[in-house]
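Dear colleague,

Following up on Tuesday's group meeting, I ran the structure prediction for the two-component complex that the binding team flagged. I've pasted the input sequences exactly as they went in, so you can double-check that nothing got truncated or mislabelled along the way. The structure tokens for the whole assembly follow below. Feel free to forward this to whoever is handling the docking comparison.

Inputs:
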Amino acid sequence: MAKEIERKFLIKGEAWRALAEGTMYRQGYLNSAKERTVRVRTVGDKAFLTIKGITVGATRAEYEYEIPFADCNALLDDLAEKPLIEKKRYKIKQGEFTWEIDEFFGDNQGLIVAEIELTSEDQKFDKPDWIGDEVTGDPRYFNSNLIKHPFTRW
Amino acid sequence: MAKEIERKFLIKGEAWRALAEGTMYRQGYLNSAKERTVRVRTVGDKAFLTIKGITVGATRAEYEYEIPFADCNALLDDLAEKPLIEKKRYKIKQGEFTWEIDEFFGDNQGLIVAEIELTSEDQKFDKPDWIGDEVTGDPRYFNSNLIKHPFTRW
């Protein structure tokens, strides 16, 4: 079990694309209720099941377990809520921090967001030029909500 | 992934108690929707997360993963739907089959059911004297429903 503190931002321009290769993610929810989110996803050639509790401030309980890749694909195809989320994730190291940029496809095509993980809610960090407006508290950008109300229908 | 075929019966009398020691189970659901049931439970000193799909006939897709015992207790206490199910399970071998008897506590105190796992839906088996009426198809006895409508309130 670990606590995660994340802040989320929109992206400006294309300069970030030169800084990282991306990895494909394919994911779906076995429960998208915020009290007990259960997510399954493939990350490149690995697969994980992740359970998250309710968010208190910017802090959320998280439990993650690696599962067999073939199981995960069957769970995504047969059991998970639809539509699935498909995205390419780019990790860009800037000083002591790593920005994670998600470029969405499918029903969320056109959406690109950047996340940074912090060790406390008030920790200071530098914003690269390609970081835009903060959307941390905006529920439209929660992964679970991008299934129910995808970006192309906003 | 494995398919399971189970038949469930009520119990008659107390003769079965002399045939096995029991093991305590404590379990709850992260999703009790029948399309994608997600269960966490402790079995003695071990812990498991189990995902099941929708039942077709007496057959159901099942995926089970062992997880850390401390994680499971935190998931049960903090995240799982309430009330939890607490029961003692007795395994009684009879010829080639093993009967699993569940004696429930808490809100389901007084309920005792026996299950047998088969390799095909029409496989033959002997019924011990202490096996009563079959309740395989009765949704009241599904573990997920024993949370929403516990035995003591029937």
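Strands of chain B lie at 2-11, 22-31, 37-43, 46-52, 59-66, 85-94, 97-104, 112-118, 131-134.

Cheers,
M.
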